[in-house]
Backbone:
């Protein structure tokens, strides 16, 4: 009997070709789109190829018909609101900068989808992410970078569990984006030329502060911009408007470039400094998850990425608590941002990662 795989189909070219590849490899493929939009009026995000609006369903259904596979829409509205949207708002109100795609991957695209897929008899779930999964000699599953560095998505997947990895297929990771589009064109897949989505799907205008104001009863007051010594430099619009390293939109007439170096929700202050003040040699992280190893022991040398588009930098990990690691970089890194992920690599393989709590 063919192994059964549920493919999460966003209506984009990557997940569509993932479904085609798996069918070609002999799997019994079922297409599923996760319904996560909360209000159809607010989620008109499809012109840029987003993954959570209504036309995602139309595109995915057309692809499924072309491939000759069954297709369903599953409702994940509650899971998405709780684990992604509510989390996004709470983190910004804490003066942190969250990565909602990481939360969505862990708790919606995997935990919830995998559970429901297993319930209907599936052996695996699959996605169109640019990453590869390998079982290592030590028996553990780990993510390996995709063959195309420019599209690699392992950073946003670092906190998947061993069970989730064991039941996941990522066929797109063996191809470049150009190859994926070529496969789609050659096989007449309807979304072959659909553009990629870049923005956070539930904030298509990228006005994060505006989204938070509309979706929370919390009052987000103005406050003071201060320098490192606490001197007041001006007034800010509310801490949800800022992130570490930000330079634009500060409206401070200081006669020189200035940057956000710290956000203090307890005192409602945004700290301003020079570019040099945005660099740090160490950071703390928690909410740890390990992949290629069960744990790091007391220390380990890795390459660490502190944001999605960070190239990575040599780093020494030191265990400082049951759920805390200090990362010491050989050279200072720019804009260590609480709430973002730090992901550890050993060559092409993901060692693990955690959530940044702050620079040291």
Residues:
């Amino acid at each position: 009997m063919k192994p059964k795989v549920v493919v999460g189909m966003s209506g984009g070219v990557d997940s569509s070709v993932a479904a085609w590849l798996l069918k070609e490899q002999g799997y019994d493929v079922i297409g599923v789109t996760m319904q996560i939009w909360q209000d159809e009026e607010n989620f008109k995000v499809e012109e840029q190829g987003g993954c959570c609006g209504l036309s995602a369903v139309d595109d995915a259904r057309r692809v499924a018909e072309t491939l000759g596979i069954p297709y369903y829409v599953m409702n994940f509205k509650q899971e998405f609101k709780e684990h992604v949207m509510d989390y996004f708002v709470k983190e910004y109100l804490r003066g942190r900068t969250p990565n909602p795609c990481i939360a969505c991957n862990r708790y919606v695209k995997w935990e919830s989808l995998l559970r429901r897929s297993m319930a209907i008899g599936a052996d695996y779930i699959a996605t169109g992410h640019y990453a590869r999964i390998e079982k290592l000699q030590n028996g553990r599953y780990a993510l390996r970078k995709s063959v195309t560095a420019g599209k690699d998505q392992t950073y946003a997947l670092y906190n998947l569990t061993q069970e989730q990895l064991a039941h996941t297929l990522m066929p797109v990771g063996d191809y470049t984006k150009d190859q994926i589009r070529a496969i789609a064109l050659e096989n007449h897949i309807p979304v072959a030329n659909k553009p990629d989505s870049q923005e956070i799907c539930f904030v298509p205008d990228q006005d994060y502060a505006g989204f938070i104001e509309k979706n929370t009863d919390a009052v987000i007051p103005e406050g003071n911009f201060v320098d490192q010594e606490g001197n007041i430099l001006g007034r800010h619009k509310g801490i949800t408007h800022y992130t570490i390293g930000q330079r634009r939109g500060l409206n401070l007439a200081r006669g020189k470039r200035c940057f956000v170096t710290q956000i203090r929700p307890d005192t409602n202050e945004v700290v301003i400094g020079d570019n040099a003040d945005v660099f740090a040699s160490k950071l703390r992280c928690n909410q740890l998850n390990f992949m290629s190893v069960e744990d790091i022991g007391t220390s380990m040398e890795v390459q660490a990425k502190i944001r999605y588009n960070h190239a990575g930098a040599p780093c020494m990990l030191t265990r400082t608590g049951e759920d805390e690691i200090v990362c010491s970089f050989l050279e200072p890194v720019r804009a260590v941002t609480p709430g973002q992920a730090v992901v550890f690599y050993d060559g092409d393989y993901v060692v693990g990662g955690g959530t940044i709590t702050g620079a040291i």
The helical segments are 13-24, 54-67, 77-93, 100-119, 162-166, 177-186, 208-214. The two ends are 55 Å apart (CA to CA). The longest strand covers residues 279-290.
